[in-house]
Design a protein that fits this description.
heterodimer, A: mainly beta, OB fold (Dihydrolipoamide Acetyltransferase, E2P), 5-stranded antiparallel sheet, 3-stranded antiparallel sheet, 1 helix, 6% helix, 39% strand, B: alpha/beta, Peroxisomal Thiolase, Chain A, domain 1, 9-stranded mixed sheet, 11 strands, globular
């Protein structure tokens, strides 16, 4: 349904999510975090890096309330839903859904925390909810 | 010294359904545009030794190698230069930049830039069944209708940071419609009010249907030649005074600052530097309006106002027909046509305005310099071209 290609760059992210862990990566030399996940450092390609578990806390950087389904057929009959870009405490942004809250309460800058939602047998998506 | 120049342009006719004529293919559309542009230029097919093409057709299949398909279809004998750069809707401005360099350096003499689309006739547009791969896999799993949702998030951020509003965006949609009503080839010509834009249903907040570009068929062609051929030209040549191109991301989440179009700052800085011109020297701005927010952020990034002041700019200036700031005089992707990749139409209209062949929508003042700007992807790539009557 999602035609998700888990590859050498993203497999650990999705496997972590299945265990309710939000994995991001950090360059061990510059100590900077990066996202999306990669099989090399997204800060400087030749730097060493490590996987770390994010606190899952952040703020809403931007969002849209979608009245049409996008990406996958999974979203047919789920409109309206909120797609958000979350700025994590560690300083990286990721795109996900903002769930379990009144849509009118969604605003840029509001604090959120991660909640894991199983979409199907294969995918658990780290979503966010307003705290 | 030979100087590259544009000498002929053409856009495909679309009917009241926004479609090209029945049984047209993307190839026949491009052939007709090429024939008309060549006729306007005074050159012939046999003069063409360079070809640039981009489109969303024929994939998977022959569309993966569009320069080969068009070379074969048009019967161009062993072109010396080919360009299939596809950076999204901005691609044709990249092509012009590259053609300029190829012609200037003597690699080839006469280039055709081509585009065709039958997306409306063939009902090809769809937000679903996008594979979740590479950096956009997170967006697709999160259900982002792309590109609309991505532009919506940039608009949301721009409103939060700079206080622009849906009213600001509506000004842009209404002005585009007024221009389109003066263009015989426009898909949407009926009157549009600010209230209608504000009252139309949100699709991806804060953007409504009337903030979005149209879905139509269409096509275009541009003939780029050089001053060595000047005895052939029917119209006065239009020179490419400045150009710049860049790219910054693929998925909207990796845009450095979602409220600032830095990639357009970069591309336009190079274009201003190479032309030695400034925003105040521009007589006409043709800015790719994929969405109303694209225009607002482009105006800021291109230096027509400060970043964050776009909302005051569109209120203070008159961007409608007869106004003081000539913008998107063909009606734009919002109201004239949007076959999927629009930037070729910024060049076509700028040339026609400079040649003063625009009929009812011809702007009154003399146009020496016109700026064309194209955005591709989800605010991802940018190309800026400054065209001029003067060498």
């Amino acid at each position: 349904m999602f035609n998700l290609l888990k590859d050498v760059d993203s497999n650990e992210f999705w496997e972590g999510a299945k265990q309710n862990k939000l994995f991001i990566q950090k360059s061990t030399k510059s100590k900077k975090y990066f996202f999306y996940s990669r099989s090399f450092s997204g800060v400087e390609a030749d730097e060493p890096f490590e996987w770390v578990e994010s606190t899952g806390k952040g703020t809403i950087y931007s969002f849209t309330i979608s009245h049409i389904p996008g990406g996958s057929e999974y979203y047919i009959n789920k409109t309206p839903y909120v797609i958000g870009v979350i700025l994590l405490e560690e300083g990286v942004r990721l795109m996900s859904n903002i769930v379990d809250c009144d849509h009118s309460s969604v605003e840029i800058g509001k604090k959120v925390k991660v909640v894991f939602k199983r979409l199907n047998n294969e995918i658990v998506l780290p979503c966010f909810t307003i705290v | 010294m030979r100087e590259p120049c544009i000498v002929g342009v053409s856009d495909a006719k679309i009917d009241e359904r926004g479609c090209v004529s029945k049984l047209s293919s993307v190839l026949s559309v491009q052939r007709i545009c090429a024939t008309e542009a060549l006729k306007e230029s005074g050159l012939e097919f046999k003069d063409i030794d360079g070809l640039a093409v981009a489109g969303l057709w024929g994939m998977p299949g022959p569309g993966v190698m569009q320069p080969n398909v068009l070379t074969e279809y048009l019967g161009i004998k062993y072109p010396k230069w080919l360009d299939g750069t596809n950076t999204g809707g901005s691609a044709f401005l990249f092509h012009l930049n590259h053609a300029y360099q190829a012609i200037k350096s003597g690699v080839c003499n006469n280039v055709l830039i081509l585009y065709g689309s039958t997306q409306k006739s063939n009902k090809e547009r769809n937000f679903l069944n996008r594979p979740a791969i590479y950096s956009s896999q997170f967006d697709m799993v999160a259900g982002l209708p792309s590109p609309l949702g991505a532009y919506a998030m940039a608009a949301q951020r721009h409103m939060y940071k700079y206080g622009s509003t849906r009213e600001t965006l509506a000004e842009i949609a209404v002005a585009a419609r007024k221009w389109a009503s003066l263009n015989e080839n426009s898909y949407k010509k009926d009157n549009l009010t600010k209230e209608e834009v504000l009252n139309s249903n949100l699709i991806c907040s804060p953007l409504s249907k009337l903030d979005c570009c149209l879905v139509t068929d269409g096509g275009g062609a541009i003939v780029v030649s050089n001053t060595d051929m000047k005895d052939n030209f029917k119209l006065s040549p239009i020179y490419i005074k400045g150009f710049g191109e860049s790219s910054s991301h693929s998925s909207i989440n990796y845009m450095e600052d979602m409220a600032v179009l830095n990639v357009a700052k970069e591309s336009s800085k190079i274009a201003y530097d190479t032309s030695k011109l400034k925003p105040e020297n521009i007589d006409l701005a043709m800015i790719y309006d994929s969405f109303t927010i694209t225009v607002l952020m482009s105006l800021e990034a291109l230096g027509f106002c400060e970043v964050g002041e776009g909302k005051d700019f569109v209120t203070r200036n008159n961007i409608s027909p007869g106004g003081n700031f000539a913008l998107n005089t063909n009606g734009g992707g919002l109201s004239y046509c949007h076959p999927g990749m629009y930037s070729i139409f910024t060049l076509i209209e700028a040339c026609r305005q400079i040649w003063r062949i625009c009929g009812k929508r011809q702007i009154n003042k003399e146009i020496t310099n016109a700026l064309c700007h194209g955005t591709g992807g989800v605010l991802s790539s940018a190309a800026t071209v400054i065209l001029s009557k003067e060498k």
